[in-house]
TrEMBL record:
This is Glycylpeptide N-tetradecanoyltransferase. It is an enzyme of class 2 (transferase). It comes from Oryzias melastigma. It catalyses: N-terminal glycyl-[protein] + tetradecanoyl-CoA = N-tetradecanoylglycyl-[protein] + CoA + H(+). Belongs to the NMT family.
Length: 457
C-alpha cells in the first residue's frame, strides 16, 4: 500500500471559526442555496471544483510530510514516534522485533471522533465494493496538477485485497453515523515475507484512505492503530508497507521509471512524467516498437503452469534480502491472468519446460477535464524471471505485448534486476520515489536491487 502525506499530516483541525459579529440586515441579503463550504463546493461544476482543489493542493504543499531524508530529519512525527519503528538517524545493525508479543491487546476498538463509527467491510458484497471504489476513486491519490486520478475497479480491488487466507476483519472502514457514508478505509492482507534469512508471517498494509473533507483531523493514525489491534488479535505483530513520503524509518528506497507506449496520447493529456525535450514526431520515433514479439514459445500463463512456475519464482526471489514466500494458491492468485487486472506470460521450451516468466498488472487512471481523453492505462511490472532468454529481450517483448493490449505506458521500479534493462529499453526515471517500511521489525538498510517485493496498490 502507499501511505500519503495528505493522510498522515500531523496537526491542524481544519475547523472554520465563525465571526461573533452579526451584520445588520444579514437575513435580507443572505443568498439562497447551500451555505456549508463543502456543500457549496459540491454544488459547483466539476471543472470549477478541480480548479479550487488544485489551488488548495498547492497551498498545502508547505505543510505536507517530507519527501527527502533531509526534510525528514527536521520534522516531528507525533504519531510515528509512538510506534515500534526505528528512529530516523539510528545506525541499525540488529535483526528482529522491536517490541515483543507478550503485551496485552486492547479488547475494544479505538475511539473515533464524534459522529463516526467503525465498520468491517464485506468485500464479497457488490454494493459495499462499489462504495469502496467510490471512496478510493475520489480521495485516494492524484497527480500534483490535479489532472490525473487513479481509478479503481472492483475486479482490481478483489485481486489486491482478497488473496488466499484474507481476513474480512482486516478490511477496516469508517462511516458517518447519520448517513452511513464511507469516509475512511485501510486494509491488511496476510503474507509470508523473507527479511534477510528470516521468514516471518506478517501483513501487507494497503490503501489507507481518508475522505478529503476529513484531512487534517488525525483520523489516519486512528485507522492505523485500529488495524494494528485487529491484526494483533490474530497473533501477528509485523507488517510491511510502502509510502512516497519519508517516515521513520525507510528500509529501502527505489525510483519509478516509465516507458511511453502511446506517446501521442500522453502528450495530449500532458502526462506529468514525460520527457520535456521532445516534440511529438521525435517522441513517436524514439518510442517506436516492433509489431510482433521475438521470443520463441512466449504465451499467456495458464493454471496448469503454476506448479512449474513456483520453483522458478522461489529460486529467483531467494536472491533478494526482502521478498515474499509464496505458496501455489498464492502464486495462482497473484499471477494467473485476469482481464484488466494482471497479465502473465511464460516461455515454454521445445521440451515443454518453462524457462521464463514476465507479469505486469493494470493501473488505470481518469483524465480530468480533457475534451477527448477520459482515461489512461498503465502496465506496472510485477515479476520478471529469465533463465532461458536474455532479460532485455524478454522485457522488450513485454513492452510489445502491453502496447498490443492497449496500454499507454509501462512503469517499473528499479528493484530486483530491473536496473539492468531500464535504460536499454528507453525507460526514463521519474521524480517519484517509493520507500519500503517494516512495522515492529528492525534490520539493516537494503539497496533497491536487494528488494524482491512489489506491493500493488
Amino acid at each position: 500500500m502507499s501511505f500519503r502525506d495528505e493522510d498522515l499530516t500531523d496537526g491542524g483541525n481544519g475547523s472554520l471559526k465563525k465571526s461573533k459579529k452579526k451584520l445588520k440586515g444579514e437575513s435580507a441579503w443572505r443568498p439562497e442555496g447551500p451555505r456549508d463550504p463543502f456543500a457549496l463546493l459540491d454544488s459547483l461544476p466539476e471543472k470549477k471544483q478541480q480548479e479550487i482543489q488544485r489551488a488548495l493542493h498547492l497551498f498545502s504543499l508547505g505543510t505536507s510530510l517530507p519527501k527527502t531524508l533531509r526534510e525528514a530529519k527536521k520534522h516531528t512525527y507525533r504519531f510515528w514516534d509512538t510506534q515500534p519503528v526505528p528512529k530516523l538517524g539510528d545506525n541499525v545493525t540488529a535483526h528482529g522485533p522491536i517490541v515483543g508479543s507478550e503485551g496485552s491487546i486492547r479488547d475494544e476498538p479505538y475511539t473515533l471522533p464524534p459522529g463516526f463509527s467503525w465498520d468491517t467491510l464485506d468485500l464479497t458484497n457488490p454494493c459495499i465494493m462499489k462504495e469502496l471504489c467510490s471512496l478510493l476513486n475520489e480521495n485516494y491519490m492524484e497527480d500534483d496538477d490535479n489532472t490525473i486520478r487513479l481509478d479503481f475497479s472492483s475486479e482490481y480491488l478483489q485481486w489486491v485485497l482478497q488473496p488466499p487466507d484474507c481476513q474480512s476483519q482486516w478490511h477496516c472502514g469508517v462511516r458517518v453515523q447519520t448517513n452511513k457514508k464511507l469516509v475512511g478505509f485501510v486494509a491488511a492482507v496476510p503474507a509470508d515475507v523473507r527479511v534477510y534469512e528470516t521468514e516471518k508471517q506478517m501483513v501487507h498494509v494497503r490503501l489507507l484512505c481518508v475522505h478529503k473533507k476529513l484531512r487534517q483531523k488525525r483520523m489516519a493514525p486512528v485507522l492505523i492503530r485500529e488495524l494494528t489491534r485487529r491484526v494483533n488479535l490474530r497473533g501477528l505483530y509485523q507488517a510491511v508497507y510502502t509510502a512516497d513520503i519519508v517516515l521513520p524509518t525507510p528500509l529501502s528506497s527505489c525510483r519509478l521509471w516509465h516507458r511511453p507506449l502511446n506517446p501521442r496520447k500522453l502528450m495530449e493529456v500532458n502526462y506529468p512524467r514525460l520527457r520535456q525535450n521532445m516534440n511529438l514526431q521525435r517522441a513517436l520515433k524514439f518510442n517506436r516498437l516492433p509489431e510482433v514479439t521475438n521470443t520463441k514459445g512466449l504465451r499467456p500463463m495458464t493454471k496448469e503452469d503454476a506448479p512449474r512456475i513456483l520453483p522458478l519464482l522461489q529460486e529467483h526471489l531467494c536472491k533478494f534480502k526482502l521478498s515474499p514466500v509464496l505458496s501455489q494458491p498464492q502464486l495462482e492468485h497473484w499471477l494467473l491472468p485476469r482481464e484488466n487486472v494482471i497479465d502473465t506470460y511464460v516461455v515454454e521450451g521445445d521440451d515443454g519446460s518453462l524457462t521464463d516468466v514476465v507479469s505486469f498488472y493494470t493501473v488505470t487512471s481518469r483524465v480530468l477535464n480533457h475534451p477527448v481523453h477520459t482515461g489512461l492505462r498503465a502496465a506496472h511490472l510485477l515479476y520478471v524471471i529469465s533463465t532461458g532468454t536474455e532479460l532485455t529481450d524478454l522485457m522488450g517483448d513485454a513492452l510489445i505485448l502491453a502496447k498490443s493490449k492497449g496500454f499507454d505506458i509501462f512503469t517499473a521500479f528499479d528493484v530486483m534486476d530491473n536496473a539492468s534493462f531500464l535504460e536499454k529499453l528507453k525507460f526514463a526515471v521519474s521524480d517519484k520515489s517509493l520507500h519500503y517500511y517494516l512495522y515492529n521489525w528492525t534490520c539493516p538498510w537494503m539497496s533497491p536491487d536487494e528488494v524482491g517485493l512489489v506491493l500493488p496498490s
